[in-house]
Design goal:
Length: about 325
């Protein structure tokens, strides 16, 4: 039997007490749930989540929301990066914002009314039929996390996501966007895009297993197959250019790009955390910790968000939380 704390023994020091400090309630909230298995309704979790809504980085985003539900300007909300409506909503999700907050639900309602393309996927415009896996997957994950799984528009997005991957009764491909089944993407020269696959799988992974349709299960299988077809530690997935250096920069939050940590995160969510093909990726993650068992934010969108998520030149609680959650799944 694997010891409960085996993952901590792989670290150079224990960062969990640091992650549970009360002066960073958003990190504390997620650490209680993801590292200590506290239920969502446990008093410490509820208190941390409530406190997180009142301070940066979550409050920095919510304070700038228009009463109509959008950020900066009405419309589909893709621009400007990374403060427009869709970015604000997906980052709030990654930060663990409370889905019961009326501002969160107002934003969800706005996005569903203005960002869904005619084919059902979430796109750059409600009129543009082009949809890409990264944007749809990110917004799908946020909508499900924020309690909108049963909304008909979200069900349409799920159907688009699954069938665009499998090709099952789907022919609405566009050369400049999702260009073919199996994650083909025009932005990646029509090659299968691993970044897009990760985002798509994050969206589909949020669906409870008993509610996954046959197309959803098929799309998950295709995505897992792609991500495990290469060593995530080298990330030499199909591309029309060279391997992006951002694969190897562990960061927070996560936009359309993905890193090796998010690759392993989503595979872990789908039950593959201990697949031997992830061994090199786990070693890569471990190699990036400092002497105190903490990780830096190597891609933090500094100066591009409503407020920076980490102080400059310090270890990152957010990236450390991500790394610890992955290692816990992988090592036990």
């Amino acid at each position: 039997m694997i010891p409960v704390d085996r993952w901590r023994s792989a670290l150079r020091d224990d960062p969990v007490p640091w992650l549970l400090e009360r002066d960073d309630p958003a990190v504390r909230h997620l650490a209680l749930v993801r590292l200590l298995d506290e239920p969502d309704d446990a008093p410490p979790v509820r208190r941390a989540r409530a406190a997180a809504m009142r301070v940066p980085p979550i409050s920095s985003i919510l304070e700038r929301q228009d009463p109509g539900g959008f950020w900066l300007k009405p419309g589909a909300g893709y621009g400007p990066k990374y403060t427009g409506t869709v970015w604000s909503l997906m980052f709030l999700d990654q930060m663990g914002a409370d889905p019961r907050d009326r501002r969160i639900q107002r934003a969800c309602t706005y996005v569903l009314a203005h960002t869904q393309a005619p084919n059902g996927g979430f796109g750059w415009s409600a009129r543009d039929p082009g949809v890409v896996h990264c944007l749809n997957g990110n917004l799908l994950r946020a909508m499900i996390d924020f309690g909108r799984l049963d909304d008909p528009a979200v069900r349409s997005s799920i159907d688009w996501q699954a069938r665009s991957v499998t090709g099952d009764r789907f022919d609405d491909y566009h050369r400049w966007a999702t260009s073919g089944p199996g994650f083909g993407c025009g932005i990646n020269g029509t090659e299968p895009c691993a970044w897009g696959a990760i985002k798509a799988l994050r969206g589909l992974a949020a669906i409870p297993p008993r509610r996954r349709t046959r197309p959803v299960r098929g799309a998950i299988e295709r995505g897992v197959s792609l991500l495990l077809s290469r060593d995530p530690a080298t990330a030499d997935y199909p591309t029309d250019t060279k391997v992006s250096a951002t694969w190897f920069k562990l960061g927070f939050p996560s936009g359309y790009m993905a890193d090796v940590l998010q690759n392993v995160e989503v595979l872990g969510e789908l039950g593959h955390a201990r697949d031997p093909r992830l061994a090199n990726a786990i070693e890569l993650v471990l190699s990036k910790q400092d002497a105190r068992g903490r990780w830096r934010n190597e891609y933090g969108y500094r100066g591009k968000l409503w407020s920076d998520v980490d102080p400059p030149r310090t270890p990152s609680k957010w990236v450390t939380l991500r790394a610890c959650a992955v290692l816990r799944r992988a090592l036990g």
